[in-house]
Amino acid sequence: MAxxxxxxxxxxxxxxGLAYSAEIFKVEIDQRVEDVDELLPGFNCxxxxxxxxxxxxEAIVAGEVDKLxxxxxxxxxHYDPIIAYLEDHPNKDGSTINIKK
Length: 101
Ligand code: SF4
Known about the structure:
Order of helices and strands: HHHH
CATH topology of the domain at 31-88: 3-methyladenine DNA Glycosylase II, Chain A, domain 3
Largest sheet: none
CATH architecture of the domain at 31-88: Orthogonal Bundle
Number of helices: 4
Bound molecules: iron/sulfur cluster
Structural class: mainly alpha
Shape: elongated
Strand content: under 5%
CATH class of the domain at 31-88: Mainly Alpha
Helix content: 40-55%
């Protein structure tokens, strides 16, 4: 009986520790990065100079990219929805990400 109680208490403590750690170390994700990534061609070829489409999407949302045409396989059908999306989803301070094709 003592073993069951001991293991139950240990399980509870470890569970609380994991829950606390998950809250402390959680990473805030900007949903716009995921959405822009979905709008890119998805070849993950690296021709844009970034480590895959997600890396390029992160750079776009961070405002580090001037032209979407850095994505070589991309076409207007990719660029136009990204530009429209970014116009509709400004930064937290209200500024918009201005990017060209
Ligand atoms: S060039 Fe375009 S398709 Fe290739 S990794 Fe960069 S964003 Fe993705």
